Amino acid sequence: MPETDLITIGKIVAPHGVRGDVRIFPLTDFPDRFHALKTVYVENVGQMQLESARPHKKFILLKFAGINTMNEAGNLSGKLLKIGREDLVQLPAGQYYIFDIIGLNVFNEEGELLGIITDVLQPGSNDVYVIETQDKQELLVPAIKEVVKQIDIAGKKMLVKLQEEMD
Q1: Is pLDDT of 131 > 60?
Q2: CA torsion sign, 3 to 7 to 9 to 13?
Q3: Is residue 165 part of a domain?
Q4: 71: part of which helix (H) or strand (E)?
Q5: Residues 32 and 105 in one domain
Q6: pLDDT tens, 7-59?
Q7: pLDDT digits (tens, 9 = 90+) for 47-57
Q8: Which pairs count as long-range contacts for 155-160, CB under 8 Å and 24+ apart, including other chains?
Q9: CB of 140 within 8 A of CB of 133?
Q10: Number of domains in the chain
């Protein structure tokens, strides 16, 4: 599987102890996922088998099969941990992963292409989609049901009703 098709869930920040454990900074909303994983893809290394996972303060401690010394673990520092789409946590209906939202074509209710989502801001109460219009302007659209009418991940489309159009 090409690494570009993988989803990043953590970063190895340092070795931990002398047995070859590594300290992981989780880059996921679901840090408990590490306990159920059998393998992960380590950036520029490949697929590695996990022996154990346990929480440690704000980190996860992982033990990889075949990594048994602090020096071996140290060689993995700074690498990203990735998983395949089949290992993603299933989200409830109506919720989407940000990496699925970015790149969607956004249309208004008249079917006009407004642009492409390039980023998702998370300022607090609700997410905000950053849409790059065809004339390279930014259009900010709140991710609320009154504005976002339909999301079609497979079709790479989003239908919105802009606030000026809501009156």
Answers
A1: yes
A2: positive
A3: no
A4: helix 70-74
A5: no
A6: 999 999 999 999 999 999 999 989 999 999 999 999 999 999 999 999 999 99
A7: 999 999 999 99
A8: 156/103, 156/104, 156/105, 157/104, 157/105, 157/106, 157/107, 158/101, 158/104, 158/105, 158/106, 158/107, 158/117, 158/129, 159/106, 159/107, 159/108, 159/109, 160/106, 160/107, 160/108, 160/109, 160/114
A9: no
A10: 2
